[in-house]
Structure formats: structure tokens, C-alpha cells
Amino acid sequence: MTKKERYDFVIHYFEEHMPDAETELVYDNPYQLLVAVILSAQCTDKRVNMTTPFIFEKYPDIRALSKAAFNELFPLIKSISYPNNKTKHLIGMAQKVVTDFNGKIPMTVPELITLPGVGRKTANVITSVIDQQPNMAVDTHVFRVSKRLGLVPQKLTTPLAVEKELVKNLKPELIHKAHHWLILHGRYVCLARNPKCWECGLQQVCIYFQNLLNKK
Question: Where is [4Fe-4S] cluster bound in this sequence (predicted)?
Fold first, then answer.
């Protein structure tokens, strides 16, 4: 099977079975999504969605958050992983957006990564979800699933390398969708420890599954 055939199969499968894939984070605007994505690092979307309503009630916009005191914000996110750092990041992020971007969330990756708590993955999420830019955020799910399916070479060892390979082989208009396809597939089917291979419709192209069969 050629690389193009593999990609075509995977894309056709997801377009048929997951046509409306989108983030599971709950948000109403770019400010809320940015806060949610920062909080979601090494934390479940479910936990973040339980937490953000209290944050947005107290800090309804970026300017309100920029004036937050650490000891007022921290109690709202103490159930999230790494609450100390994330409290500092959220306040610092909001202050920088206000001072450097006139209170408007920037919408380019180079600008976003200048904000505290925002790395390349977060910047790619924001720009692809809000603006449907052809940016591929590579989290642990995307990294695992893309390698298991054979969409990227096994030898690639960094998220950036995987991101570049996926972007190179996907049509620009599909990249923002493919990000969600791979994440959701990894979250609910292609699990890290006990993947549900026998329920998966991608067995035909999956290198991981073929290796399982060969071991039997």
C-alpha cells in the first residue's frame, strides 16, 4: 500500500464515520478556548469543562482575567493538574494579550507562542479551531495514532517532526479536521495501553494491527 493510498483510506473512513469532529472543550469565544486549552495540558477535557464555567463567571473576558490575583484564581483551578503554574500562566497570558495585542487574542502561531503557557501545540489548536488554519496540533493521541496507522514513519521521535509529516501529506483544507479525527480516535478507540483494535474500522491499513496479527 502506498502512502497516498493509506492517507486516502484513513481520510475516507473518518469523513464517513466522523464528519463533524470537533474539540470536546466547551467555549464560546477565542478567549475561553485559549483558557481551556492552557488548562487542558496533561489534564482531561472533562475536568477542564467542569472547571472553566467558574473561571468565566468570575473573569468574563481577557481584561478581567488580566487583573486577577493569584490567590483568587488559584482556588478555581486547584483541581486541575499543575494548578500553580497554570494560574501564573493564565494571568500572565491575559496581561500580555492586553498590553501587546490590545486585548484581542492573536491568531498566528508566532504571536501566540509569545504568551505565557502557550506552546506550539496550543497555538496550533487555537488557530485551527477558531480560524480553521492548516495547522496540526500534535498531542499524545495524534502522535500515537499517526504512527500506529503508518501515516508517519516510526523513526520520527518529536511532535514537530510528526506535525510536519502530517501537514505535508494532508490537503490544507483537511488539516484542522484531521487533528480532531486523530485525537478522538486515540481517545476512544486507539487507546495507549489497550487499543480496541477489534472494533476499529482502520484495521486494513493499520501497521500496529498487522504487527499484532503477525505475532499470533
Answer: 190, 197, 200, 206
Give the structural domain span for 208: 3-21+135-215
Binding site, annotated residues for [4Fe-4S] cluster: 190, 197, 200, 206
Annotated binding-site residue numbers: 190, 197, 200, 206
Reported for 124-128, long-range contacts at CB under 8 A and 24+ positions apart, including other chains, are 124/163, 124/179, 125/23, 125/33, 125/37, 125/179, 126/30, 126/33, 126/34, 126/37, 128/175, 128/176, 128/179
pTM of the model: 0.91
Q: Contact 122/37 with Cβ under 8 angstroms?
A: yes
pLDDT at position 216: 62
CATH code of the domain in which 181 resides: 1.10.1670.10
Q: Could you give the number of structural domains in the chain? A: 2
